Amino acid sequence: MTKAFLPLTILAAAMFGYAPIMIANAPFESTMGLVQKIFYFHAPSWFVMFAGAFICGIASFMFLFRGSRAADQYAVAGAEIATIFGLIGMVTGPLWGRKAWGVWWQWDARLTLAMIVWLTFIAYLLLRRYGGPGSNKLAAGVGLFGAANIPFVYLSVNWWRTIHPKTSVVPTLGPGMRGTFWFCVAAFMVLMTLVLAVRVRLERGKAQLDELYLSLED
Amino acid sequence: MVRFFETVWLVTRKDFVIEVRSREILYTTLFFAVSCVLVFAFGFVRDGRPVEDAAAGILWIAIAFSGTLALGRAFERERQSETLRALLMAPVDRAALYVGKLTGVLLLLGAVEVLVVPMVALMFQAPLFRHPLLLAGLLVAGTIGFAAVGTLFAAMLGRARSRDVLLPVLLYPITIPVIIAGVRGTAVLLQTDVDVPMARAWLAMLGFFDVVFITLALWTFEPVMTE
Amino acid sequence: MDFTSLTFSDVSRTFGRRRALNRVSLRCEAGELVALLGPNGAGKSTLLAITATLIEPNSGTVRYGESSAREAGASLRARIGLLGHDLYIYPELSAVENLRFFGRVYRLPDVDRRVEAALERADLMHRRDDPVSGFSRGMRQRLALERALLHEPRLVLLDEPFTGLDDAATGALGRRLTGLRSEGCIVLVTTHDLETIEPIADRAVMLQNGRLTAIEPGAGSLRERYRRLCAVSTPS
Lengths: 218, 227, 236
What we know:
The complex is a heterotrimer. Helix content of chain A is about 80%, strand content about 0%. Chain A has helices at about 1-25, 40-65, 70-100, 110-130, 135-160, 175-215. Chain A is mainly α. By secondary structure, chain B is mainly α. In chain B, about 85% of the residues lie in helices and about 0% in strands. The radius of gyration of chain B is 18 Å and the shape is globular. The radius of gyration of chain C is 18 Å and the shape is globular. Chains in contact: A-B, A-C, B-C. Chains A and B meet through helix 4 and helix 5 of A and helix 6, helix 7 and helix 8 of B.
């Protein structure tokens, strides 16, 4: 993974450097105007959050049932990614909503789903941090349950909001917008891969440091 | 298979016997549930009339909060002399220990609900007993879902630091679908024209949740409890 | 499943940066009573917990006869008896209820007879129906010991079993342990009570900072040899 750092960083920097140009050149959306353009970073942030949640879930499973140490490192990295990018989503969302709908928060189905998943993985990190020794195994249980819970949250929140019609924004994007959107998604995915790799490397470094400490005693 | 259920029975009966002697968890949880309902009632009653959906919401919140308390106390007991460790060392299927503790918690919550449901019906003039079977189904399925995840997490946190606050922190996000389904299902039953198919749909979702999460818990109990 | 030897090969266990056990190797045979000595925090309880299959080692293997814990499965646990620091008995239940509960969980045949015999040995017949919460420390210790031995385990692990016992009880426990040894059990005892364990132990080993060293038989009492070994291992 280390060999990929430099090319990934360059790629991510390039994509994020170019993204504002693409966004500025994208056509304005009819009703919301300039404000809508926050969507190009807002939606990909959520994609990355769910990807992080998914990674955490799978890695937690591997750690619990296959005892893979590396899996534990990916699990914590995935949870942190989910938390950070979820935070970006939770900040950009209300900013957009305030301008677009006039309210900071709306109990929209997707927003609520995202918030609940975000809270689940914050809880995962709280457990790892404050649960004392052995909490990485316990957190793996939470990660697994959290990821398995996503379809149930989606279903229940959707039914709960049946009064608001479900809107699917992406297919309705105009051609100029679609390209920008997918470019931004790709940029975020590259960033996520980079962050994941760095974070896992950090965990691995910590584990190696612990082992060095231990071998000092020998 | 028989041995599995024998172990479940032994553990449940042991918890029942201990609880019947002191009735400590039962009384304190009951009282807490009642206080919960009162506190929320004062929060949501307006102009002397109950806010329409409040009854359903308050009922399920009381169940969730008292459930969390009961779970914490139930496993605190096992921690006293590390008896859970002793059970883990027995030549039994460790998942059976989980089911045994779960059954005990369900019995306790059942007792709480027997008190709280009529209480809410009375205080909010809510026609909760119009469709008793559906209501019972929602309560049973919802309580099982909540307790299934809660029992696993409470057992898991047995030896962790900050376990008192971590249990609700971990439990509530995961059980939000249960709360939503329980509250909406119950609220639907309280409307003037009851949407029975909708209530059944919520009940089905709860049932599905129960199956998935009990299965997950049975698989993860042993790996999570051994260091 | 049954086994006649217990073998640790290079067992290590770490908790974060703390190494509880450092490449511990030990072999115990049936009919042996091994005293496990060492200062507090040396890793003795961890070693017992690993032997009881409650914790997994980070590296190395533990073999019960020829099989590992994973291969042997749940039936291995039926052959192991552990008495820990925490006594593993329910304070809200009575003595007889505690024993009956564990007897049934372990699926023992003729539970009632065994329970009666255990209560006799623990000298608790007169308090059998009283809740354990009212017992003195020594009474709880005696009950906990009987609970650990109720299923006649092949491998007996005792963590500081002499704590809180008066002279009579200590003597009785010592005789009990030699009895178990002659029945062919493997008995592993951790204790600070060197004078009591010396006459009955076949061997003594010491854990210090996670490392295991044998205390060779030789000149002087066990305590003197133990002190010497402690002094050697801890540079001033």
